[in-house]
Design goal:
By secondary structure, the chain is α/β, with parallel strands linked by helices. It has 17 helices and seven strands. It folds into three domains: 175 residues, no CATH class; 112 residues, no CATH class; 105 residues, no CATH class. It is flat and about 80 Å long. The C terminus is likely disordered.
Length: 456
């Protein structure tokens, strides 16, 4: 069992498996070809890679001129021919020379897999050359900016992996090449936002290019802040913060995002404003937007993300994404009740409620699910019985336990679930205080010291 999911099984007849002798013969033949085609020495390979890196650096210096609509046709054609020539040379780079003595491998398969791994330096240089070629193919500016940014990231990762460096030759991937690609990616994106200003930009002046990028970014931040401020105009004590997201949660080429926060008491007002966001608003949106309530000076994990595509104006944000936004803004996340043992039990019950719903939606042909959910529910019941709780805590935990148990025993998918109630409080306003969802949330709130009516 992995994270509550039962393992998949597939029966394969032994007669369909290839014979080991034939497999080893093919693997050995391919390995022999790779070794024959490999460079004889590192000096031979590095010399070629350093030469290609220098040619790419020279080509990238002229690349911004190719973005101009007034680009000279003859110079553009000559530059494209040079890019194609470097592309062919990069694709023809020989593999790394085989190691002199790596010792006996743990298995033939692992040794073969290691030999099949491409040289990261050669691969990143080939990708960078291909990214430059996208310019003369008239790729859309947004796609071109993304392609160039990806090429810069691959060059950076290949540089981090490291390769032998010969002092008299230099580095295959100089830092200037990576910075040039990042600058070019930013120029491609900015030229889409401010085409008139880009048309007047002097591309032979690097200081002017950086100044243009800074001005363009500042104008976009001011423009987006004004749009968000107008959209959430009725939300009291709202705060709009500008973020720069890390690479792992970034979408597109830019790292710009916004975090809109408000006191917990204004959360329903903010949800109402988010529900009114229409297509005209989203067409003006140029960055990702997270909306989350504040608990004191901290950000609650119960946030939403404004949708830039699709029929819905927003969707619930995962706790991990909220934490990433909060960290980028320099804020702490409010782990409400994290120091209370009862919240551990509640977390398990919510997880079991969610898994119960998922198992009910299994296709009939999949068969009966593994009864691990009932085993886990019984373990939670033992924890409640054996724990040392205050009377009110024990009463609430047993009520929530009974709710999840009824969800599992119900013949059909129940209308009210514990997991569903928590999802609703993120994306809907529970206007009916007498509803079953509100009752469940009030019970959970009773275990939070800072909740209305909570125990101290």
């Amino acid at each position: 069992m992995v994270n509550g999911y039962e393992p998949a099984r597939r029966l394969i007849s032994s007669t369909v498996r290839a014979a080991r002798t034939g497999v080893r013969r093919n693997v050995g033949f391919c390995a022999a070809l790779r070794r024959l085609a490999a460079a004889e020495t590192w000096t031979e390979l590095l010399t070629e890679e350093v030469r290609l890196g220098a040619e790419l650096l020279a080509l990238s210096a002229e690349a911004p001129y190719r973005l101009k609509t007034t680009d000279n046709v003859r110079r553009r054609s000559e530059w494209a021919a040079k890019v194609d020539a470097v592309q062919r040379q990069a694709n023809m780079l020989q593999p790394e020379p085989p190691a002199l003595d790596e010792g006996l491998p743990p298995s033939h398969a692992k040794a073969d897999a290691r030999e099949r791994q491409p040289d990261p330096t050669a691969t990143s240089l080939a990708d960078a050359t291909s990214a430059l070629g996208a310019i003369v193919r008239d790729a859309p500016r947004s796609a071109l900016a993304k392609t160039l940014k990806d090429a810069a990231n691959r060059l950076s990762k290949a540089q981090e992996v490291g390769a032998p460096v010969l002092s008299d030759l230099g580095e295959p991937i100089p830092e200037a090449l990576i910075e040039r690609f990042r600058l070019f990616s930013a120029l491609a994106a900015a030229s889409l936002r401010d085409p008139s200003e880009f048309k007047r930009l002097r591309l032979d002046n690097e200081h002017a290019m950086h100044e243009f990028l800074e001005t363009s970014a500042k104008e976009m931040i001011d423009r987006q802040t004004a749009i968000l401020d107008a959209a959430f105009d009725g939300v009291p004590e709202r705060e709009i913060q500008v973020l720069h997201l890390p690479e792992e949660i970034r979408y597109g080429t830019g790292d710009l995002a916004f975090l809109v926060t408000m006191p917990l008491g204004a959360w329903h007002t903010a949800l109402g404003a988010a529900e009114r966001l229409d297509d005209s608003f989203r067409s003006q949106l140029e960055a990702n937007v997270m909306v989350a309530p504040r608990v004191g000076d901290q950000v609650s994990v119960g946030g939403i993300q404004v949708a830039r595509l699709g029929p819905q104006p927003y969707f619930p944000a995962s706790p991990g994404t909220v934490r990433a936004y909060a960290a980028a803004a320099g804020l702490q996340v409010a782990e409400i009740g994290a120091d209370q043992p009862a919240t551990v039990i509640i977390g398990k019950l919510v997880h079991l409620s969610w898994m119960s719903v998922l198992h009910r939606r299994r296709a009939e042909q999949w068969g009966v699910a593994t009864p691990f959910l009932r085993d886990e529910l019984q373990a939670v019941q033992r924890s409640i019985i054996e724990g040392h709780w205050r009377p009110r805590e024990e009463s609430v935990l047993m009520t929530l336990f009974d709710q999840v148990e009824q969800e599992m025993e119900s013949a059909e998918v129940p209308e009210v679930t514990l997991a569903g109630a928590l999802a609703d409080i993120q994306t809907a306003r529970l206007d009916d205080p007498d509803s079953d969802e509100a009752r469940l949330l009030q019970m959970i709130g009773a275990l939070w010291p800072d909740a209305p009516g909570g125990e101290s």
